[in-house]
Amino acid sequence: MPRTLRLRSQVVILAVAVAGAVFAYPYLRPGPRQQPIVAFADVPVRQARAFTLTPSQLATVSSEPVVKRQFFEEIATEGKIGVDEYQATPVFSPYPGRVIAIFARAGEQVKRGQPLFSVQANEMVQAQNDYLAALNVLNKSRSQLAFAQAAEKRQRDLFETRATTLRELQVAQNDLTSATNDNRTAEVGLEAVRNRLRILGLRDEDMAALQRGSAINPNTPINAPLDGTIIQRKIGPGQYVGTGGEPSYLIGDLSKVWLVAQLREADAAKAEIGEKLLFRVPAHPERTFEGRINYIGTSVDPATRRITVRAEIDNRQGLLKPEMYASVRIINERENLSHAVPRAAVILEGNKASVWVIKPDNSVENRPVRPGIVDGGTVEILDGLKEGERVISRGSLFIDRMSTQS
């Protein structure tokens, strides 16, 4: 190769090397030291540093003491208002028949014994017929008893005057005993039929009218078994009802309702009986309702992977209605106090956290901490600080940047 060509090649190689060095210099020159982000249990993000603030620097920052306070862990979920099943009663027709009339509607207040609806039922016709038959039997037994009493008195009077024999008196006494027993049996039978009619919904005044000669009425009222509010009505006029299947009415006491919440499987271990539960409903967004958990489900719903928790809620004002949607917060009240610092004092770098601690001599030290629950503008510190120490709450990022440049 000619000498001029070799010299030219060396110049080109040298120029390329110089250009590469200039391009790579910004990436290869020493810069701020960076550590890999690891778990808190490993080494800290940076070595703890301490330096003293000048009066001008001190004027730009604020500090607050580390205090102890109670933190509440919250579990957010959703739920709905339900009927207190211990205070609710489904109403079934005790016999099959066709609905003739509806007397009570959903949302109305009813008293025990108040008619809800009426059906035409063969059982009512048969029971009224049995009542009339029992009345007839009782009337006959009373007549026989009166005759036996008169016969026994006559024979006793004759026996005392020696006008009859002892045998005739004993026969009359036996007839009286038999008539008395028959009358008692008739009275018991009539009372049994009366009770049967009461169960079927017939009132005493209706039975008295039937006794006076009123016609048999096939319409049977179905009465409320307890005081309460009609929550559901599932029948209508003309509908045929049976003794099984769905209830015709659901009556409950809505002065207390259930808040039924669905808890995620991962949060199941955090909920306990007796814990406070706060919730809101869209109908009253300004109002926060409160209760205590009194039931936790024993199994996970295989479809939703949720566990049911329940609380009893005072509803004497009637603001909560069954099936209302609710946004729920379960409050885990910790008994122990924890260290707390302002949220602005905590510096986060990846999954690391630290604070700047200021000492009485105005020196500051960067200290790794382990944060816990964040409650508004306050952070729980589980490890790394002592009560009474002061941390930089305003200007901590300025101190942090200044420390990396020193």
Automatic annotation (TrEMBL):
GO CC annotation: membrane; outer membrane-bounded periplasmic space
Domain CusB-like beta-barrel: 256-332
MF terms (GO), sorted A to Z: transition metal ion binding; transmembrane transporter activity
Source organism, top-level taxon: Bacteria
Coiled-coil annotated residue ranges, if any: none
SUPFAM superfamilies, alphabetized: HlyD-like secretion proteins (SSF111369)
PANTHER family per UniProt: CATION EFFLUX SYSTEM PROTEIN CUSB
Sequence similarity: Belongs to the membrane fusion protein (MFP) (TC 8.A.1) family.
Protein name as catalogued: Efflux RND transporter periplasmic adaptor subunit
Species this protein is from: Methylobacterium nonmethylotrophicum
